[in-house]
Amino acid sequence: MKYLSVSLVVVILILSACSNDEEVVTFENKDFANTLIVQKVENSSSSSDKKKTVTDKEKIEKVLSKVEGLKVKKISVEDSMDQLQGQEVYTFGFFKDPESAENGEYAFNVLEDGKILINYDDVANPNTPLITLDTH
């Protein structure tokens, strides 16, 4: 009986630890994004002819709404870099003012395998990358 109780506690701890890594993408507001830059990256390189700038606020909000609500998990920066290697990737970067900022306020990458790698766990916070649990 003691062994069964200890086993149940261990299983519960493992399950709760796994579920703590899962999150849902949300935005309190989308005012941080005045410009969207979409760029295709092939073999870890990009060019200006594969880049599109969008300033239409409706289109920008529509793109953000596509990732809002997705289930994601935290991954390390090293794992996020590994995910980008050797794949064709579309990068979506959101800027309040692209002329004054080197880094955007938010960014994500649509990977060739259908996963979405999100560079920021929150707006203007690129410290914790996230990846979707499902392919899209």
Straight-line distance between termini: 45 Å
Average pLDDT, rounded to a whole number, is 82
Summarize the amount of helix as a percent range.
Answer: 25-40%
- The strand count comes to 8
For the record, the count of structural domains works out to 1
- Which percent band covers the strand fraction? 25-35%
The number of helical runs is 3
**What is the N-to-C succession of helices and strands?**
HEEEHEHEEEE
Low-confidence stretches: 1-19
**Widest β-sheet, arrangement of strands:** 1-4-8-7-6-5-2-3
Radius of gyration: 18 Å
**How would you describe the shape?**
globular
Task: Explain what the structure shows.
With about 140 residues, the protein is an alpha+beta fold. It has one domain. It contains three helices and eight strands. Strand 2 and strand 3 form a beta hairpin. It is globular and about 30 Å long. The N and C termini lie far apart (about 45 Å).
